[in-house]
Amino acid sequence: MKDLKGFINPNLTPGWESPETLNTWDKPGSRTPLIGAGNTDATVTEKVCRVIEGPPTIGWIIFFLISASALSLLGILVPYLIFTGVGVWGVNNPVGWGYAIVNFVFWVGIGHAGTLISAILFLFRQKWRTSINRAAEAMTIFAVICAGLFPGIHVGRVWFAYWMFPIPNQMELWPNFRSPLLWDVFAVGTYFTVSLLFWYMGMLPDLASVRDRAKEKIRKVAYSVLSLGWTGSNRQWHNYERAYLLLAALATPLVLSVHSVVSFDFAISQVPGWHSTIFPPYFVAGAIFSGFAMVMTLVVPARHLFGLKDVITMRHLENMNKIIMVTGMIVGYAYLVEFFIAWYSGNEVEKFTFLNRALGPYAWAYWIMVSCNVLTPQIFWFKKMRTNLKVMFIVSIFVNIGMWFERFVIVISSLANDYLPSAWDYYRPTIVDVGILIGSFGLFFTLFSLFCRFLPFVAMYEVKGVIAGQEHAERQEESAGSSTEEGASPATAMT
Amino acid sequence: MREQESSSGSSTLGRGTVLPLWFDQLLKLLATGGAVTGIYVVLLVFFGASPKTIASGYMPEQPIPYSHALHVGELGLDCRYCHTTVEKAAFAAIPPTQTCMNCHERVFPESPDLEPVRTSFATGLPVNWVKVHDLPDYVYFNHSAHVTRGISCVSCHGRIDRMVEVYQHEPLNMGWCLRCHRNPARNLRPVDRVTDLGWGLDRSEEEKDSQGREIMKGLGLLDTEGNPTERMTLLTNCSTCHR
Description:
Chain A is mostly helical.
């Protein structure tokens, strides 16, 4: 077994072990250390940088090749779609929004955790964000890239995709500014731009660290360009932290706005099951839920593979599991409220739609959704379970599946059985639909594995700040303990 | 103080950036170049791909050097003498050879330029005229709808009566159509003046506007107070032109 581990990751050099850190206990009056004991600034740099400095490990190569093969599926099927037409998909009347829109909403949702972790938790001074924010932000960028692919190919005539943007044109027509589909273009575009800037800016000091450690010429030049001449001077740090704070404040409302606008694509329309005011908060909670689950899916294997178990510790994972549980329950609450409102509104069509979801032809999808999203996260009530790596990994996979099915249920079941019973039909995806979904996962994992290989996986400089805080707190605790003893002795002497 | 971690191994290239000083100059050059290229590309697309550039002025060579300037401008033929269906149908008919031969059996019967007309007349095969004003297939333009409501031929085709060889005078793109569909007043004239290409061109813009608005009232596009009616919105309805 030990030999196998070395085979998968020979970079786990002796002297830099990363033992599993069980820092999930709470002691009243003191802060539990986030980073594993024995870590210093030097060990953190070493642990994070060796991931991208050594030769690629076998584990990484296998993962990359699988992802790239899935990506090649996308490379084959998207041109096939473009040259043949959207008839290769299962979309038709009445279900005109098939897998493409399901996948779009799914991927945009995944992209929510990154900015939540990096911006909102930053503003709330949640120090546990530091070890996972870089990976989560990278995941966000790649998920939004995957999401952006789908509206582009869904328009059918791809060469007219630019009609989505308000560009002056010979037709002298603008897109419909009253349409949420246009708001979507702005919301997702803004989100992508700000997330990318935030991610890249947050990486500058770490890129400079990698540059300083680089030994080959090409590597040195590449990271010099990427780090934009960062020297780590006092003035640079001062401006940098100001700018980071401002960008965080700028990114924070976007976390809420993007998926609200995505939900408007549905809520603004008249289709039963879509036309509902609960959609924006329900979608945002679902997005954070699925985003955290995806971070978990990526980070649990990565921390093992890259030997970062005492940098991304059990404490981080447990906190994420708590958020998964909370947002999972918000989503479950939304499912219930939808049923309540359907009954309370007295609207026959609305009532039918929700009964049809739970008992109709798509009941199988509905119950997959409910069991994955509402039931599985309940296991995290138990501390043993939310600190168990295997359990959290499996739950995160279930949540990913469940959240994909949530979008499937919303998009497909509402369209398949709406106001006109004579037009009802059962939607069946084609092999091309499934292939493009797998291909989008290929794109996502290929980009993520390249990120793991070439950019620092953990925000080193922020983790170092946490370590400094930890040491400071420990020293204070020690001195506080000794001072009470000292303080006690004169008191006893007095009496 | 947070400071950069020094490398654990000794680096032969040393600390800090390795980029030479001229790299800053290069960056400035690239930034300026990028900005200029960006502006250039935008202008190139805006003017180069404009329908005025790529569509107006199209003048294919015709099998017979038929001159509209001579027949219409000098001899005074009415458009409808040859394009007979223009008031009744969507398509303005290209005249059959028989129409030419009405005169050319006697006028210049030996002219070598008219050889294709005589061949066509003898064999019954039509002359291969080349279409000049060709709209995309997804646009349903109806000549009769325009001509019988007072839109003159000249609005879309230009001064055909002065063209020795016919060319496309207007860009005929969608924006150009919409500019008139949104406010047709200045292109409207009395229906009996529709084929009189030189008519009313000396009117001032204000005159064209006020006269056009009166015609629009007659067509029911404006109410008696001059406000647009429900009917007016049909002019910019998608399915009016795209079905």
